[in-house]
Amino acid sequence: SASRPQLRWRDEIDNSDAPFVPRLRAKPNALVPLQLVLVPPSEEAGSSGGRGRAEPATWYANPYEREISAFAPSDAQLLPGPDRPFAPLHATPCTWVDSEATLTHMRARLAAAAEIAIDLEHHSYRSYRGFVCLMQISTRDEDFLVDAIELRGSLHLLNETLTNPNVTKVLHGCDSDVLWLQRDFGIYLVGAFDTGQAARLLELPSYSLAHLLSHYCAVSTNKAYQLADWRIRPLTEEMIAYARDDTHYLLYLYDRLRAELHGRGLCAAAWARTAELCKQAHKVKPFDADESAALLRRHAAPLSAAQRAVHRALYCWRDAMARAADESSGYVLPNHLMLRVAMAMPRTPEQLHAACHPLPPVLGYNSASVLSAIAMALPRSAIDHEKKVP
Ligand code: AMP
Ligand code: MN
Ligand code: ZN
Fold first, then answer.
1. Distance 331 CA to ligand 1 centre (A)
2. In 10 A of CB 233, how many CB atoms?
3. Burial grade of 141 (CB within 10 A; 0-12, 13-18, 19 or more)
4. Contact 125, 328 (CB under 8 A)
5. Using an 8 Å Cβ cutoff, are 332 and 125 in contact?
């Protein structure tokens, strides 16, 4: 179904907290052979929380760590180049890539490029861990919009180019992209340049892409589509324009930023910082019931001990429901409603409805289950009190 594309890859969905296993089967551009290395639990990061709260006990190392460390930018990647103005969007071909044939065509075009720009659009509301919906790629001459839902199983073929250190990959703010590429496609980046890191090193007034586009390209963009539903097909004209904007100007920005960095002796640092981001390994974020307390602190709401216990039980309940239904916890029970239900401590379906309207669908279908989770969390004293005062 178009609205629930993950049904197509249902067999590979693992919403457990087991370590993520790299999806790589072949390793193009390898300096060392493909090997899965489980990083053992470290001694200083105690198992009982503290600093490593969001970190799993163990994970698989990034299989391209050595190649990323060994990458040294060439003179062409460090020195200012010739002036290459960008063409306007309307004068640039744009190809929708959603089949093996169009993917093959794109790969041939990319193989001829020395530099490419990449960005991703992601969906996280109707899925437990989220998934990439769209991959935008621009060369100096054309834009590609890749249907990452349709081609989910084939995009690993891009590793040939994306792990080739001689092809520059330009991204803006690639922290998440690096992890999403690993998680969904088994794709790694060797030889990447992050224009966001460049903006930081240059201490520009803003590090956002919107700022870089307006400052260097005199292009104003509409970031309203960032949170659009990127699952829908066909994409609307506005979404297509937004998606193309995100990569179309990046190679020009790379030229401008590289020249400025070079003038201040900072170019190598930009490559090194991006390499650190690319060395990240995708890790499963383990569930931690204690995070419910952090949510309450953020709301600054005065809750009784009983209400706090119910809030924690709801927090655990919604995580279990979200995993089973492959929905986000925010879809199952948004934070503000979770707080309201915790404060109401409902015992009956009527009280639940009164505390929580509109009732989110997953909560409605499972009201018996949530009421029993609430009842079990209530301290004995609260229940005894209720019995005495009917
Ligand atoms: P971008 O590269 O800025 O287009 O963002 C890539 C993806 O990150 C988007 O498709 C969203 O899924 C997600 N994203 C970006 N900004 C936000 C935000 N402010 N809140 C939530 N998700 C975001
Ligand atoms: Mn991005
Ligand atoms: Zn984007």
1. 17
2. 13
3. exposed
4. yes
5. no
Helix, strand, or coil here: 221? Answer: coil
How much is the average pLDDT of 92-116? Answer: 97
Helices 237-248 and 250-263: crossing angle, nearest 10°? 30
CA–CA dist 170, 361 (Å, integer): 41
Q: What ligand has the least distance to the C-alpha of 195?
A: 2
* The pLDDT of residue 33: 98
Strands 131-138, 115-123: pairing kind: antiparallel
Q: How far is it, in rounded angstroms, from Cα 121 to Cα 241?
A: 13
| Nearest protein CA to atom 6 of ligand 1, as residue | 121
Mean pLDDT of 280-287: 95
- Alpha-carbon distance of 38 to 281, in angstroms, equals 11
Q: Which ligand sits closest to the CA of 223? A: 1
Q: Which atom of ligand 1 is nearest to the CA of 176?
A: 8
Beta bridge partners of 240: none
Reported pTM: 0.94
**Strands of 143-147's sheet in order across:** 94-97, 143-147, 131-138, 115-123, 168-171, 192-194
Residue 13, burial from CB neighbour count under 10 angstroms (0-12, 13-18, 19+): middle
Residue pLDDT, tens place only, 185-237: 999 999 999 999 999 999 999 999 999 999 999 999 878 888 899 999 999 99
89: nearest Cα among 254, 255, 243: 243
Are the CB atoms for 68 and 272 separated by under 8 Å? no
Residue 135 Cα to ligand 2 middle (Å): 10
* Nearest-angstrom CA–CA distance, 390 and 385: 9
Residue 302 is predicted with a pLDDT of 84
Percent of the chain surpassing pLDDT 70: 93
Across 79-90, average pLDDT = 95
Residue 155 clears pLDDT 80, i.e. is over it: yes
Which class for 220: exposed (0-12), middle (13-18), buried (19 or more C-beta within 10 A)? exposed
287, HSE (Cβ side, Cα atoms, 13 Å): 19
What is the predicted pLDDT for the residue at 50?
45
